[in-house]
Amino acid sequence: MHEPRKCSPTCRKFRCGRNALIYRRGTPWCRWVNEPCDPSNCNYAMCVARHLLPGGICGETVRRKTTDRKPEEDLGPVIKVRGKTFRKIGERELF
Description:
There is one protein chain. With about 100 residues, this protein is of the alpha+beta class. The chain has a domain at about 1-65. It is built from 2 helices and 9 strands, in the order E-E-E-E-E-E-E-H-E-H-E. The chain has helices at about 70-75, 85-90, and strands at about 15, 20-25, 25-30, 35, 45, 50-55, 55-60, 80, 95. The strands form 4 sheets. The chain has a 3-stranded antiparallel β-sheet, with no helix packed on it. It has a two-stranded antiparallel ribbon with strand order 1-5. A hairpin with a 3-residue loop joins strand 6 and strand 7 (about 55-60). The radius of gyration is 23 Å and the shape is elongated. The relative contact order is 0.18. The model has no long low-confidence stretch (mean pLDDT about 80).
């Protein structure tokens, strides 16, 4: 099964918010804390495509779970409207 992966500083979409990422002997290095770069614990780790999830997980490796619902199950409480909202929408009840 396809498992979500941790984000890697070697990804071409990865960026450092402090602009402190350099490569020392092929290893991603953070000049800010003077340690190897670890996106899961860094507050300044970013993804250009906005796919970085909390905990340093790459959002491109996560699969969505979908469920089939019947329309009857989705109906919640009925909200009655009046006044200006009624004139704009044209319905007395919203679901």
